[in-house]
Amino acid sequence: MTDARTPVLTVFRGDEHPPDMGPIEDVAEVRYTDAAGLSDALRGADALFMYEFLSTALPSAWHAADRLQWLHIAAAGVDPVMFPELRASDVVLTNSRGVFDDSIAEYVLGQILAFAKDMPRSLRLQDERTWKHRETERIAGTSALVVGTGPIGRAIARMLRAAGLRVSGAGRRARDDDPDFGTVHATDRLTDHLPDADYVVAIAPLTDQTKGMFDARAFAAMKPSARFVNVGRGELVVTADLVAALRAGDIAGAALDVFDTEPLPADHPLWTMDQVLISPHMSGDVVGWRNELVAVFAENFRRWRAGEPLRNVVDKQLGYVPSGS
């Protein structure tokens, strides 16, 4: 923004008010809204902060965005706002890349340890007051394939390597000299490399190319002893194919933080499978995460007002922030 007038900022907050907004309120006209009021709040607005980042309400309100220059989403994934009208517009899109990297990496390591050390069963036996000795697995020396080579995928790779796993990646471009993954395989050859992995971690962005990439063919390619961890988007997975693979023993287990329907319906078969670990889309949500999201936006808001380059600018055709940006 280069003119001297007070900027108008719309904040789509849903049910929760974002913290630490005082400094921004001091220099801007801030309009807080939910889905019902989004159209009215967008008229005449210069910028939009999508604090309620999972909502799909924006496309139906987009007609009212008559002066919008910049949209920031409080998430790493931008698929909820990647509708055709936004892609075709001049509106700059930025995301919150960097906030969730280490926390999601810790979650992935925790779920791998939970599988290897049979922790869910220990908790069930504790509830039953049953003493049952078992042997468990080592994770050092096992192999992990991280599908998605952005900042979160890299944080996962570094943490798993530190725990002794052999890690490779899968991304758009194959290479053998990656500093975090070593070898990166091309995702269009994914099924060629799934048989080598003890743990398959999905953290790819949701695009037209990645939607449904984990289907019956992918699960059939995995080891029967492999575990699947999804911390990306639920739509990366054909859920019915995952259920079928688990029932057939094509894979040994799944840790799922994201689903194609959220909340996961109470009658969904995944709830009752002993080899499935479920969490409610919380892998990156650690104490203070909301403050960090606002801090990322506030720094970009400062840059925007000063006419400086914005951080985390999304390539709207690719659907993510390009590497090196």
From TrEMBL:
Residues 17-314 form the D-isomer specific 2-hydroxyacid dehydrogenase catalytic domain. The keyword Oxidoreductase applies. Transmembrane segments: none annotated. Pfam families: 2-Hacid_dh, 2-Hacid_dh_C. Keywords: NAD, Oxidoreductase. InterPro entries: D-isomer_2_OHA_DH_cat_dom, D-isomer_DH_CS, D-isomer_DH_NAD-bd, NAD(P)-bd_dom_sf. PROSITE patterns: D_2_HYDROXYACID_DH_3 (PS00671). One of its GO terms (molecular function) is NAD binding. It comes from the Bacteria. Residues 110-283 form the D-isomer specific 2-hydroxyacid dehydrogenase NAD-binding domain. Belongs to the D-isomer specific 2-hydroxyacid dehydrogenase family. PANTHER family: 2-HACID_DH_C DOMAIN-CONTAINING PROTEIN (PTHR43333), D-ISOMER SPECIFIC 2-HYDROXYACID DEHYDROGENASE NAD-BINDING DOMAIN-CONTAINING PROTEIN (PTHR43333:SF1). This is Phosphoglycerate dehydrogenase-like enzyme.
